[in-house]
Write a structure and sequence with these properties.
The complex is a heterodimer of chains A (317) and B (503).
Chain A lengths: L1 H8 L1 H19 L6 H26 L7 H17 L4 H24 L5 H20 L4 E2 L3 H8 L1 E2 L2 E2 H19 L1 H11 L1 H6 L4 H27 L1 E2 L7 H11 L11 H20 L4 H26 L4
Antiparallel strand pairs in A: 1-4, 2-3
Helix pairs in contact in A: 2-13, 3-8, 3-11, 3-12, 3-13, 4-5, 4-6, 4-11, 5-11, 7-11, 8-9, 9-11, 12-13
Chain B lengths: L3 E12 L2 E12 L3 E6 L5 H8 L7 E6 L2 E3 L4 H6 L2 E4 L11 H5 L6 E2 L2 E2 L1 H14 L16 H13 L5 E5 L7 H16 L3 E5 L3 H7 L2 E6 L2 E7 L5 H9 L17 E9 L6 E6 L3 E6 L5 H9 L5 E7 L2 E2 L5 H6 L2 E4 L3 H5 L6 H10 L5 E2 L2 E2 L1 H14 L16 H13 L5 E5 L7 H16 L3 E5 L3 H7 L2 E6 L2 E7 L5 H9 L9
Parallel strand pairs in B: 3-10, 3-11, 6-9, 9-10, 15-22, 15-23, 18-21, 21-22
Antiparallel strand pairs in B: 1-2, 1-4, 4-5, 7-8, 11-12, 13-14, 13-16, 16-17, 19-20, 23-24
The chains are: A mainly alpha (317), B alpha/beta (503).
The complex binds adenosine-5'-triphosphate and magnesium ion.
Chain lengths: 317, 503
């Protein structure tokens, strides 16, 4: 009994129930929904968003925000495409791409910790700058025709399972272990829950903050690789608005924008919930404008449930 | 003939797993100051929060001027003329003092805040209550904790309420500020304001209260007139047994210098020279703003400062960040539990182990060995006698005194050689205080060195082998053995000019 009670106290479990309910609804509406092909499709489409959202989870756990993710994914794709098209070796391109993600993270970390700038503003600026650069570098054109070995990450399969899904799952598991089982992970939560107390407990808070923005930058670089490989193309407008979906997934998954609260499993369920809703609405031929409205309403509902739950736990003073 | 201002009848409060109040009644007369005392976790704050509308009683009635009332929010109780200074400060850090005082009541003209009037009103309230040294334009986050507490008091007074509830209002105040508060209270008495005053300082209760009510384990024990009782009898009612001593010091031999600091300066601290010996309890006493907390933080690396030389066991060391200090066996425990020490929203065991985790105590290659982490935390949780449903409980839900014990557990779990304790008994009841004094003495006896900062002079005198007085960011005098006495120490803390000689 107490086990069941403690389950319901976890926001992850409630979102999971939500996922089941929404899934059940769509499976009644459309016979195709539950087919293994469609389910795999949902997970595949969720994996790019999922990787971005995992990076975002790290950032939000420290009470930060990274608005640049969509633009950084696009810029990563365009940079790689440019290099590939001028014949640079695939392994080298992939490594440079990771360094690119790390560099973005270090830039954010430095601005926030040393220059004392607000995460919201810094990443908003990067969002605009990175998007601008994609246009400059690509001249506004879509770049395509990449080597087979590059596309493997986005379009390849291992024993009928898409490589992208495997990367996503491994990435999620690694991130969750890091957060729940390591000192570094504990320190990320500590910084988000009380940064002054964290510093006085000996945590190098600046390093932790820089780390989470690097995690987000690297996530974008990985997402950029998978996205370009899957489409065999890099578009300057790719991943527009991805920051909103990523933030929504993290919050639906039970994290708090005030920091210190949230898990990767929650985020993954949040991403899947958004993926299921997108997919189900497509199957039901819901017009795109309504899709956007409904997604917004789901986010509102998720945050509402969380806030009601919190206010039951303690009377506000 | 007295008239009742506020009456509680048969109040009970059930939290999940804890019966915080069990059939408690209370009556507060007009113009009366009622002391409310009891051990940590006795239910004092819960009672205040019920009167203030922050919590709902599970049972019982509240009568205001003989009429039953129900408060669904803090706002409703405020509107009925009840102002409260809560034990935990509730100011908004990134707003100014003036905005905090007048929050929800910002004076507006056509929808725009009238800043001039706001600052004038705030200045007026601060200066008429003897707090003129606080700048109404200062951001609350930049204030020292004692000043924050003064702002809370000013804010509560600004409502001109008929009933004022004060939950440990002096926990971060030093001598003169406390005297100032007492002056305010006697003025309020003349204006027929009724006050409930919670404090672990019984001397304060005896100085300003008319009657005192004792709670224990959420139950009424007794209510007596101040003139008909004494400290010992109150203490034994609080703890349910007799306590002979309040302070505790043990004879132990003091060793060599373990820490020597020369020429510590920053924009506030001026040329501090300090030494600490093995097995020594070094007290530092100073008034609010004397720089005592700043000094501890500077030693700990939590505050930028220039140090000519800092030697640990005769060897020069550098401390640039708290982690450097922690690795050398130096630990600081902050006075400000809520904003600098605890991680609210997290279980007790996590709070206890955070600091030890940073030195790799329970980890292999960064992976946490949860079993040993939990076991060691439990060990210190038991050692310090934390009262809570269990070690999984959120520290946020602990009573103030028990939160303080968690802070101490967190500092001690790493078995440091040098412990910088900033107000370690803030908000702790008499019985638990004695435990902490014994703990300090035991640590010293076991070869540890302690710097004890406290705004309670008797506590400094009662536990220290040696004392430094501080004023205006300087150490003004050193007192050893027989020289340690209240009068002399105070004299060296009150000086306002700069003639202070460093020890
Ligand atoms: N929100 C809450 N949820 C669960 N338990 C609570 C909550 N608030 C208080 N308690 C418990 O109720 C009891 C009474 O707490 P309260 O804060 O009233 O004590 P107190 O007398 O003010 O103690 P102190 O002197 O330490 O401030 C404690 O056991 C505390 O752990
Ligand atoms: Mg209390």
């Amino acid at each position: 009994m107490t086990f069941i009670k403690s389950l319901f106290a976890k926001s992850e479990f409630i979102v999971f129930l939500g996922l089941l309910v929404v899934g059940a609804f769509f499976s009644f509406q459309s016979p195709v929904f539950l087919s293994s092909f469609n389910l795999q499709n949902i997970i595949l489409q969720s994996s790019i968003m999922g990787i971005i959202a995992i990076g975002m989870t790290f950032v939000i756990l420290t009470a930060g925000i990274d608005l640049s993710v969509g633009s950084v994914v696009a810029l990563s794709g365009i940079l790689m495409a440019t290099m590939l098209n001028s014949g640079v070796n695939v392994a080298l391109v992939l490594s440079i791409n990771l360094v690119f993600g790390i560099t973005i993270g270090i830039f954010h970390g430095f601005s926030i910790t040393k220059m004392r700038m607000a995460p919201f503003i810094v990443t908003l600026a990067t969002m605009a700058m990175a998007r601008g650069l994609t246009m400059v570098v690509s001249d506004g054109r879509t770049l395509f025709a990449f080597p087979e070995s590059f596309n493997y990450f986005g379009a390849g399969k291992v024993a009928s399972i898409p490589v992208a899904i495997i990367i996503f799952l491994l990435y999620a598991i690694t991130a969750e272990i890091l957060l729940q089982k390591t000192v570094l992970g504990r320190n990320i939560y500590a910084v988000g829950s009380n940064i002054k107390a964290a510093a006085l407990s000996g945590i190098r808070t600046n390093r932790i903050l820089t780390f989470v923005y690097i995690a987000s930058g690297v996530s974008c670089a990985i997402a950029g690789t998978i996205l370009s490989g899957r489409l065999d193309a890099a578009m300057p407008t790719a991943a527009t608005g991805a920051e909103l979906d990523a933030i929504a997934a993290v919050i639906i998954g039970g994290a708090s924008l005030f920091g210190g609260k949230g898990t990767i499993i929650g985020t993954v369920i949040g991403v899947l919930l958004i993926g299921v809703i997108n997919n189900g609405m497509n199957l039901m031929n819901v017009p795109p404008f309504w899709q956007s409205f409904i997604k917004g309403a789901v986010i509102f509902l998720a945050v509402l449930i969380d806030s009601i739950k919190n206010s039951n736990e303690e009377a506000a003073i | 003939m007295t008239t009742s201002a506020l009456e509680l009848k048969g109040i009970s409060k059930q939290f999940p797993g804890v019966l915080a109040l069990d059939n408690v009644s209370l009556s507060l007369q007009k113009a009366e100051t009622l002391g409310l005392v009891g051990e940590n976790g006795a239910g004092k704050s819960t009672l205040i929060k019920i009167i203030g509308g922050a919590y709902k009683a599970s049972q019982g009635k509240i009568l205001l001027a003989n009429r039953e009332v129900v408060f669904n929010s803090t706002q409703e109780s405020l509107e009925k003329g009840i102002s409260i200074v809560y034990q935990e400060l509730n100011l908004i850090p990134h707003l100014s003092v003036a905005e905090n005082i007048f929050i929800n009541r910002l004076n507006q003209t056509n929808g725009f805040v009238n800043w001039k009037k706001l600052y004038n009103d705030a200045t007026e309230i601060l200066s008429s209550n003897g707090m003129a040294d606080i700048n109404p334009r200062a951001m609350v986050a930049d204030l020292a904790i004692g000043q924050k507490q003064s702002v809370e008091i000013a804010k509560a007074l600004s409502y001109n309420s008929k009933i004022l509830l004060l939950d440990e209002p002096t926990s971060s105040l030093a001598g003169p500020e406390i005297q100032n508060l007492f002056k305010i209270i006697s003025r309020l008495k003349e204006k027929e304001i009724s006050i409930i005053y919670i404090s672990h300082h019984l001397d304060e209760i005896f100085e300003i209260c008319d009657r005192v009510q004792v709670l224990r384990d959420g139950k009424n024990i007794d209510t007596v007139a101040i003139s008909e009782t004494d400290t010992n009898s109150i203490v034994s009612k609080m703890v349910g047994r007799d306590i002979e001593d309040i302070y505790f010091k043990e004879e132990h031999s003091i060793g060599e210098n373990i820490l020597e600091i020369k020429g510590l300066n920053d924009h506030y601290l001026k040329n501090i020279n300090l030494n600490l010996k093995r097995s020594e309890v070094l007290g530092i006493y100073g008034l609010m703003g004397s720089g005592r907390t700043e000094l501890l933080k500077a030693i700990y690396g939590a505050r930028k400062s220039k140090i000519e030389s800092i030697k640990l066991n005769g060897k020069e060391i550098t401390i640039k960040h708290p982690i450097d200090a922690i690795k050398q066996g130096i630990i600081y425990s902050s006075e400000d539990r809520k904003s600098e020490n605890l991680f609210f929203g997290n279980p007790i065991w996590k709070n206890i182990s955070y600091l030890a985790l940073q030195t790799g105590s329970f980890s292999n290659y960064n992976f946490i060995a949860h079993g040993s982490e939990l076991a060691k935390s439990k060990d210190y949780y038991d050692k310090l006698n934390v009262k809570a449903p269990n070690i999984e409980a959120d520290v946020y839900n602990l009573s103030g005194g028990n939160q303080q014990k968690v802070c101490l557990a967190k500092a001690l779990i790493n078995e440091p050689d040098i412990i910088l304790l900033d107000e370690p008994t803030r908000g702790i009841d008499v019985g638990a205080k004695l435990e902490i004094y014994k703990l300090i003495a035991n640590l010293a006896g076991a070869g540890k060195s302690i710097i004890l900062v406290s705004s309670e002079l008797p506590e400094i005198i009662g536990s220290s082998d040696r004392v430094y007085s501080m004023a205006n960011g300087q150490i003004t005098q050193e007192f050893i053995g027989e020289e340690i006495n209240e009068k002399d120490i105070l004299r060296y803390c009150l000086q306002k000019d700069d003639f202070g000689v460093s020890a």
